[in-house]
Amino acid sequence: MRMPRVPQLLATVLQAGALQLVVGCGWLIEEAPPPEVEEAKPEGTLDPDSAKLRVPGKPPFVTAPRERGRPISDEELKEMTAAELVDRSRLTFEADERIRILRAALEKEPENRDARLELMVALEDKGTDLALNHRLRDESKRPLNEAAQLARELLAEQPIEDRYLVVAATAFYNEACNRSLDGQLDEAVASLREAFELGFDNPIILDDPELDPLRDREDFQELLDRLSPPPEHPGSGAGIE
């Protein structure tokens, strides 16, 4: 089954269009359809479809708005249960604060799957924010690689729920970019394979400069051959997704 394009993280929610990108890549602009009127949902309702337009600090599956409120105190962290901390992280805007809350949850329950999934999202948010908004590419590698490793561990236990698959696939892709930049070419191709196994098919891989060290490799070209061909537009030849 074809996955939606893997969206990356932006600084603001765009109402007129969706801007998609991955670390180290150029910008992909896609026009979004006019907003549809939807029935009101209870606060905090999970919404898998919203994973298609994920933005930094706003998880793809929580309809309640995140807040820029005061950080949770250390005392509050101690008093709250792991489940309560996970819920609080989903309503917190800043990636660093979400990571702090989720690590506290995992200190209480190291195997809490919800906390680990949300931590994967928060780490991916932090890494892309460092790389794209602050131009701190080297500093971005650590959280991006940690997100990928967390995705790998979660997948080894059981399949990742659909609404988190885009994040996991993106994490593997960004890890591949990191490894390519660091000269770890075999490892970079391995990470790309993991991304493709989760349905990553964003054509930005075709001209991502961070993957240039891989382009002469046969195994990399084999991955490119797996990309879905662009649709045909009548009278205009091959189109662009």
TrEMBL record:
<dbReference type="InterPro" id="IPR011990">
    <property type="entry name" value="TPR-like_helical_dom_sf"/>
</dbReference>
<protein>
    <recommendedName>
        <fullName>Tetratricopeptide repeat protein</fullName>
    </recommendedName>
</protein>
<feature type="compositionally biased region" description="Basic and acidic residues">
    <location>
        <begin position="38"/>
        <end position="52"/>
    </location>
</feature>
<feature type="region of interest" description="Disordered">
    <location>
        <begin position="35"/>
        <end position="68"/>
    </location>
</feature>
<feature type="region of interest" description="Disordered">
    <location>
        <begin position="217"/>
        <end position="241"/>
    </location>
</feature>
